[in-house]
Amino acid sequence: MVEFEFGVYSLGERIPDASGNSPNAQSRVEAIIQVAKMADEAGLDIFGVGEHHRLDFVTSSYGMLLAAIARETKNIKLTSTLSVISTADPVRVYEDFATLDLLSNGRTEIIVGRGAFLESFSLFGESLDDYDELFDEKLHLFMKLQEREVVSWQGKFRSSLQNAQIAPRPVQKKLPLWIGVGGTPASAVRAGRLGVNMALGLLSGRPESTKPLVDLYWQAAREAGHDLSKLRVSVSGHSYIAETGEQAITEFVSHYNQYFGYFLKERGQQFRTTEEELMPQRAAGQILAVGSAEELAEKILHQHELFGHSRFMGQFDLGGKPLSRVEKAMDLLANKVAPMVRRALSK
Question: What is the helix (H) or strand (E) element at residue 239, kind and residue range?
C-alpha cells in the first residue's frame, strides 16, 4: 500500500494587494523557491509549480523554476501543476523533465492537462477548435517517448518523427505521469482508460458531487484491464491551516477575496465572501481545505473514503499570503495533519 503523501504547489500569481501593489517578478520567483525549500525542510513529500503565460504570473518557464528548486532541495519530489501539453511540443517537455530528473536525482514527476487559462493557444499558434484533439495526440506522443529512446511517430499537429533520438533519459525508468482533471467526465475516463494517475483539482462544493467523476476513472481503468493497485488519485485545491479553525478562516479570507476577486473581475464577475460565510467550509463534508490541523485531517479522511486517493496537495501561497504564515501552515500540514491521516489509514 502506498503511503499517503502530502504536498504544496504554487501557481506563481503576482496580483495586486488591497493597496494596489504587486510584487515584482524577481521577488515572486524568489518567494516560490523559498516556499519549496520550506516544504522540503518541513518533510513534505512533493512540491509543484503551475504553467501560465501572463504578465500577472511568473511561471511561464515553470521547468526552469523547478530546476532551480531541484538544486536548493534534497528530498522533496518535484512536479508541474500542471503542464499545458496541448500547446507545447511533447518532445521538448519530455527532454526538460528528463533533465530535471537528472538534476534532482530521480525526484521528478509531471502532471499534464489542458489548463484553466487559454492564453497559451494563441501564444503558440494553436486553435481552440482542436482543443481535445491536440491534448489527446500530444499526450499519446509523450507516453510513447517514455517507452523508447528512439522513436518513430506520425500525427496531425506535429511534424513526424523518424528514428528520432530522445535524450537525455531520466534517472527513473519512467517519469511518474498524472493527468490533471477538473470536472470533465471524459477526462477522467481517458486517464483511467490509459492507466495514468489522475490529479483532481477541487476548489469548492461537496466532495460527494465529485465522487461520480472518480468512480468513472476507476471503472475505466478496471475495464481496460489495468492493475488498480498501481494507479493513484490525488486531490488538490486552495488551502490554509492555523492553530484553530477560526484563526485559519480569519487569516485566509482577505487573501481568498483578493485572489478570486482579481481573476473573476476580468470575466465581468464579482467575488467577495466573509468570515461568517466561510466558517461552515471547515466541515469534513466541504471541499475547501481550510481549518485547523484536526479539521483538515478529518476532511482528507472523509474524501479518502469517497475517492480512494493517496495524495493531497494544497495551494497555500495564493493571494499574497505572507511567507511566515505559509511556512507555519506547511509545518502544520507536515507535522500534524500528515501523522493523523497516516495513523488513521494504517488502522
Answer: strand 233-242
